[in-house]
Write a structure and sequence with these properties.
The protein is an alpha+beta fold. It is built from 3 helices and 6 strands. Strands 1-2-3-6-4-5 form a 6-stranded antiparallel beta sheet. The two termini are 45 Å apart.
Amino acid sequence: MCPLIVTRCSCGQYIIQDRENLWESWDYGLVEGDDLTVAIILERPLTRIIWLPSVGYPLLRSVFRDAGIKPDGQYLAMHECGHARISLKPWKPPKRERQPGKPWGGRQPTEKEISEFKWIWTTPFSQLKKK
């Protein structure tokens, strides 16, 4: 998986390129809501944006015409030189919500769990087998 590249097309418009396998160019505008209806009517190919917080960038999944399109989804329209963008709203990745001073994991370990971990970590393997 490779991150998306923002660049300019030879026609002068900003585009988003997916350079993973087959290079694809998408308009730099988030298609959702009423813009989604316009894209379907104009028969512009769409790709769904799926955010992957574990790797820190989005994954694009192509949809075929209106099959697989969800009204609450976020999409990019395929770039076609000489055609206006369907949407001018830029896509921004979701903010990672985390309370200050708290780790990313689920819960804090207890004092007993910490002391057991320290004991296992510092005890030689031969002594661990005896218990």
